[in-house]
Amino acid sequence: MTQQALEDQFDALGGPERGPGRPKVYRAADGKRVPSVTTITSRFKESIGLLNWANRVGREEGQTMREARQGATDVGSLVHRLVEARIHGQRAEKVPAEFRDRVLSAFSAWEQWMTNSRFEIVATEQPIVSEEWRYGGTLDCVLRDSQGRLALGDWKSSNAVYADYLLQLAAYGALWNETQDEKLTGGFHLVRFSKEHGDMEHRFYPALDEPLQMFLLLRQAYALDGIVKKRAK
To answer: What domains, with CATH codes, occur in the chain?
Structure first.
């Protein structure tokens, strides 16, 4: 498929109204800053996670390390951006020839999965803040399945599925359920695009009770961590 053929596929496609996307800072109703889901989960990773956390929290302007990585060119990132363009009714960006076959393989697999599943996209790029637990997050996609149930969709570009992805999904689901009248009853769909190959992996989780419990414990630990650090100074 040529680049022009790819762009032509996108011309006639619309999408749901797009949310404002990920804010630089999440704030609760009282105006106070609250941490994001990924800030909390990254804080309690091993050494590389600590570096990412310090980078994220310590810099309020400019690119974080994570944002810089997202801008890097790899197959998974390119597919992720094509998926977002498709959902939002935007034109496809130019895919470098060296990546095109692998990118289109994974992207076509995602399109086929969406078609076969008969999903309707309800919301996308929605930032939400929990007033109860005081954290924020931006949901990739809320889907309505063929049975009329709402489900959460999340797209990842990585070479594996990691445990913290489940914590993120559970935390995003809790954000939606706290703030919306219609709750998520259709489970969680995690879609991973390989960074190197034209692979797409889909995993479905009917419920994520234990990951949510773990995330909320980490949220409490995150708050206590700040208190302990102040006492240690």
So the answer is: 3-225 (3.90.320)
